[in-house]
Amino acid sequence: MSLSILVTGGAGYIGSHTALQLLLGGYKVVVVDNLDNSSQISLERVAQLAQDHGPNLSFHKFDLRDKPALEELFASEKFDAVIHFAGLKAVGESVQKPVIYYDNNLIGTIVLLDVMASHGCKKLVFSSSATVYGWPKVVPCTEESPICAMNPYGRTKLFGEEMCRDVYKSDSTWKIILLRYFNPVGAHPSGAIGDDPRGIPNNLMPFVQQVAVGRRPALTVYGTDYGTKDGTGIRDYIHVVDLADGHIAALNKLSDPSVVCTGCEVYNLGTGKGTSVLEMVTAFEKASGKKIPLVMAGRRPGDAEVVYASTEKAEQELNWKAKYGIDEMCRDQWNWANNNPYGYEPCASTD
Ligand code: NAD
Ligand code: UFG
Q1: Taking the complete model, does pTM exceed 0.90, yes or no?
Q2: CA of 203 to the centre of ligand 2 (A)
């Protein structure tokens, strides 16, 4: 019988790609999402892309903090594991509205952990972030590198990790994997699902893509005086399909009785390669054939200079390694943008 996975935030960018990989891998997928930052159309497309596996996807629209609704769902279905994506993720907004971020990201996680425990479901994959490495003094970042929070969003990830560690310490029958994502970009190669942020994009590649389709006049490059090869910031960009596959690898580790799994483990999901802003723009221009006008500007407050992952632990213990490079990331990002210049719901676009 196929394993049943609850995916919170499954209508969003990473969640929808992971839901698809899960379905294709033979899992039953139940998504809970309040559609606060997503469209249900993503899940309709996931079901289409999954073809014969499409009927194994179901969707419940409610807020994770709605404990009675979550209780009801757990009472009606037995889940083998939960992948917890649901959360707010805009760094700048979290500085403006910290209470909303603490409420959504922390209460959502607390309610989830509580309901899981009361229904005996104790396998969890938690979405953490490379943001917990702050401005790293040493790169690549290993899972042992010092962690800190630079803003309220980052603090919710740090607290989320700590809550998971404490829950495991209190009850060793839990199995939890904390995944620290580096910079997810790209889209499913079909071009049918991808990143569709509401409002002005905060992140580099969604902004680049909107310039390419004519929604914005130019990309502002934040910082040209870093001590890097071309003066712009360096990040570890990872194809979202590779990232999605990293979740399947994590589930395998949690579910396989022959695999030794210590209670609460953390893994980086990145490629181990650093790419500058200008290198990324050049790769996108090559993939799309579009010129991206640039406006050079000062540093964005709070930005780190160079961040990239050590990938050894995930390679050795999850048997997972990213397959795609920046050319494939840009090819697939452009394919998604070209097919869906205004995202899933053009009429609802806030341009
Ligand atoms: P996303 O906004 O596309 O997806 C998150 C989903 O969660 C959305 O569909 C949203 O509607 C839903 N959601 C939010 N709060 C909810 C709640 N209280 N109840 C129910 N649903 C809720 O974001 P994403 O890029 O797919 O990120 C997924 C996770 O990965 C987040 O936890 C994010 O912090 C983390 N992460 C993302 C990145 C990135 O760059 N995209 C990097 C590191 C970590
Ligand atoms: N950048 C620009 N112009 C833009 C947007 C970004 O030059 O319009 C630059 C940034 O200065 C940085 C690089 O592009 O040098 C990447 O910026 P992103 O905002 O795409 O990514 P960050 O690494 O700054 O942060 C993102 C998320 C964090 C998360 C982190 C690691 O916003 O929440 O990736 O996962 F923690």
Answers
A1: yes
A2: 5
